[in-house]
Every structure is written in C-alpha cells, then in structure tokens.
Design goal:
single chain; 150 residues; alpha+beta; GTP Cyclohydrolase I, domain 2; four-stranded antiparallel β-sheet; two-stranded antiparallel ribbon; 2 helices; 17% helix; globular; NADPH_dep_7-cyano-7-deazaG_red
C-alpha cells in the first residue's frame, strides 16, 4: 500500500467530478483496536439529475477501521467534487459508502444521508456494509428528522 498522501500538506484543487477525485489512505495507527471514526458533512451538495437544481444533505459517515484509514482532506475534496455531479439521493449516498468500503476495506462502515426537502419531501438514505462488529460502540448519528418550519 502506497501511504504517501497526495493532498495532505499540498495545495489541492477541488476535483471536477467524483470519478476524478483521489481518496488517500494511510495505515491505521491503532490497528489492533476496535473503534469508530465519524465524519459529518452538514453542508453537502450535489445536483438533481432531472432539473440540475442543487440538492443539500447532512451526511454522516461512521466506520470501524481495518488496516487503513481515509485521510480527511482527501475525503473533503471527494465530497466537494459532488457539487457539480448530477445524481439521485440514493445513488449519491450509497455510491459514497460503497467507494469508501471498496477502497478502504474497513471492518464496518455506514453512511446516513439526511437530504433536505425539495418538492416537499425530505429523503433520508442509509447504507452499511453489514452488522456492526461485536463490541463496537455505535452512537446514534444525531441528525434530527426534518420537521419543517416552526
């Protein structure tokens, strides 16, 4: 595994698309420990594939590392690359989770996509690799259901 991050400590441009984004991984500094890592992206955006209008979500990514962890700057750039990407909420949310799981091979991963309403309907999308490992503390994701104004 090449562990030289491409983005950490470097000037990096926002990738034009998720396909162009490179995620960096480094060795897990606590390889023998079972623990949970959480990333929250409360201002995630992508584009509706039908109208081209922006869609907004609060993403929460939880994972139990295996041999490697994702480098946070590369994850930030990867998530930012969706701002010009057209995709349905389900495709975007599950696609992010699957790419991380495929490349990082964590012990366990889940993603919650809490999408803000457009057309009057909020859509929440959840995906995980499997049941959490025995003994892993998995806190609630902490994103309240959409309640509208008032």
């Amino acid at each position: 595994m090449d562990t030289t991050p491409l983005h950490l400590g470097q000037s990096s441009s926002l990738p034009a698309s998720p396909d162009e984004a490179t995620l960096d991984y480094v060795p897990n500094p606590r390889g023998g420990s079972l623990y949970l890592v959480r990333f929250a992206a409360p201002e995630f955006t992508s584009l509706c594939p039908v109208t081209g209008q922006p869609d907004f979500a609060h993403l929460v990514i939880d994972y139990a590392p295996g041999e490697k962890i994702v480098e946070s700057k590369s994850l930030k750039l990867f998530l930012g690359s969706f701002r010009n990407h057209c995709g349905f909420h389900e495709d975007v949310t599950v696609g992010i989770g699957q790419r991380l799981a495929d490349e990082m091979t964590p012990r366990w991963l889940r993603i919650g996509g809490y999408w803000y309403p457009r057309g009057g309907i909020p859509i929440d999308v959840f995906w995980q690799t499997a049941a959490p490992p025995e003994g892993l503390w998995v806190p609630e994701q902490g994103v309240a259901p959409y309640r509208g104004r008032g």
